[in-house]
Amino acid sequence: MNIVEKAEASSASLREKRVVITGSGGLLGRAVARRLFEQGYRQIDVPRGATGNLSRGEEVARVFHEAQPEILVHFAGDDGWGRCNVAEELYKRALENTHLIETACRRGVEKMVCVGSGAAYPANAPAPLRERDLFNGLPDPAAAIGGAVERLAFVQVQACREQYGFQCIFLIPANCYGPRDNFDPETRALVPQLIRKFVEAAETGAREVTLAGTGSATREFLHVEDCAEGIRLALERYSGAEAVNIGSGSEVGIHELARRIARLAGYSGQILWDATQPDGPARRVLDPSRAAREFGFRARKTLQDGLYETVEWYRSMHARSEPELRKKAFATRA
Fold first, then answer.
1. In this structure, which of 37, 169, 211, 298 has its CB flanked by the most CB atoms within 10 Å?
2. Does residue 122 have a pLDDT over 50?
3. Buried b / exposed e across 78-117, counting CB within 10 Å, b at 16+?
């Protein structure tokens, strides 16, 4: 049996396993579940309470008892840290990660995929961000809590591997975006935030939109379906101890990102920048070479195509919701 045949046999074996997804009911978690189902996985479970109630050991024990995972995909990263109650959120997320990794290890889960985020990288790490630099400095202050929690999870994963031979891999995806994202006004994710602002500005005929920062920083954005495919490939083909970036390796200036989204949204007014607000690190782009080398992952969707698709999805959902909102408002006044 050659290397390709072995990889296919291993993948086929995994597809028969019970897969449990914890830690995220959001954009990426749903996309991973869809991608696995499309690839032939039929026992996929996102247990009740598995997206935000796992800081208690008894709840984790319940999930394992009911779902009996053979494969565990856990989102240990920044899944929308709130702007308030940061100590409470740190405590909750740290306990979630700790309980899940420890329980998966001790209960004989065959393979675990732990998904972090770029928040774990040091603020001053050179771009593109390479996995070897993960601990060469402190995370950016704006993401310090999420970054610290993710690093702790990675250290625990390595310790369990060393002491018990636990097969758990750690992935670091770029900023994800795409249809079905969270477009709530309070979201911290930049792409949905900008799409909402510019679509609404175009609809209302606003003459200017003010954005935070100077727009000079650069960031990397990965379409959620590409990211889900990267996680699927890593699950099937990677078993190494080292963290692996999942990204495109391409960066875009925030100035340019805003202009692209404004054009797609049909907004033709001015874009102003509030330089009193911080930009964060000057550059944030991942080096994806390890993922390409270890399990053949390469991002497929261009940023322009992905933005167009996401803007159109938001427009269609926004158009559907408006009549309902007006109907509710009328009923309230009546």
1. 169
2. yes
3. bbebeeeeeeebbebbbbbbbbbbebbbeeebebbbbbbb
